[in-house]
Amino acid sequence: MPFENKEKLSQHPFQESPNLTLVRLALPVLFSLIAEPLTGLADTAFIARLTGPEPVAALGIGSVAFSSLFWVFAFLGIGTQTQVARNEGGGGNSVKVTSLASMVALCLGFVLIAASLPLLDTIATLFGAYGVVNDLACKYMAYRLLGAPAVLVSLVCFGALRGVQDMRTPLLAALGINAINFLLDWVLIFGNGPFPMMGVSGAALASSVSQWGGALWLLLVVRKKIGLTWKFKGAGIVELMQVGGDLFIRTGVLLFFFGLCTRVANGAGADQGAAYQAIRQFYIFSALTLDAYAITGQSLVGYFLGRGDTFFAHRVAVVVCRWSIVTGCVVCLAMLLGKDFVAWLLVPATAVGVFGPAWSAAALSMPLGSLSFATDGLHWGSGDFRYLRNAMVISSVLCVIIVFCVDAKSNDVVYYIWLVTILWTLLRAGFGIVRIWPGVGDAPLSKA
């Protein structure tokens, strides 16, 4: 069966040059994913220049809470990419799928604004923010929410374009968004030019304005390359909602774990909270670097499974995992060598002492931890969302129990939290690997 469509499959470059094809597709994804969290890194670097650790701690709480609100809706981009990739391989039409997902994203964005604004103080408190930190975090989240519809629409556009293996356009969008954000950060945070000094609020407003510009441009590109329509009948709303249900639970558990870690760190003091924010920000930056292979693998797996070829889908898994481990080793080395620079750039002077050990632990976890990101993308491409949901629930519940046992009065709270985070990552990697090798359960990617 895997070779029945060999002549047709030979049209795809991956069959002849798997490594070269993966790298060629992954490089634009890599740079676009690196560009995306530069918004958070730029915000942190600018805010760290303000007086005291409170603004950085508030930024950490606000960005975690904001990211949490949007990660819940990650299914819009992930589900769209998988369906579009399947259509690309099987000759289907992706116009209705992309159009429906875009409209759902826009509506959910405005609902999110209306539902979240009255709850900002409660949200900040849940993440351990009190006093000045709470006030600053609430202002940050209020301004970031203005960009909610744009962020969700951008997720759909990125997914649709990557589904047709256009990895270049998302890169251009990410670079443009970050360039605008960086300029507006400098203007609004410090009050340069005719604008007043807004501090943390300025960072949030800069992000929202840049996101709206990026979303409008992406819609124009998607309309040209894939197409958009108001006729949604037959677009697969049931499939999208099923994916959404599984990913909603998975993302909710993930966010609860990170939210608990943030709360425990901030509960130990502003210095611990600031150190945790700096490590978390760069950890996400590094994780997204590793995600380049996962996202590329998702599109390739979906493409080959859309053509009914499990042989090459499995081959994609092999190549993606190999490259992920090698890249994880490179990231580990870069983090260890760059520890002092990152501490200078992102960490207030009073928090440097608690930053170092936790940073080193996070760096050393990268080689094996890279497989958690790689296998997530591979299983997304195969549509194995329910398995990923269950794996995340089991890993997170175990690690949440351990976090609850951390002594909040210890001077090493951030270090202990990152040790638990490493365990959480390795558990997820293990679940992802055994689903492919040897292929436990009804595994779409087990070798045919």
TrEMBL record:
Keywords: Membrane, Transmembrane, Transmembrane helix. One of its GO terms (cellular component) is plasma membrane. InterPro entries: DinF-like (IPR044644), MATE_fam (IPR002528). The chain crosses the membrane at residues 21-38, 58-79, 100-120, 140-164, 171-191, 203-222, 282-306, 312-337, 344-367, 387-406, 413-437. It holds the Pfam family MatE. One of its GO terms (molecular function) is antiporter activity. CDD domains: MATE_DinF_like. It is found in: Membrane. It is a multi-pass membrane protein. Belongs to the multi antimicrobial extrusion (MATE) (TC 2.A.66.1) family. This is MATE efflux family protein. The lineage of its organism: Bacteria, Pseudomonadati, Thermodesulfobacteriota, Desulfovibrionia, Desulfovibrionales.
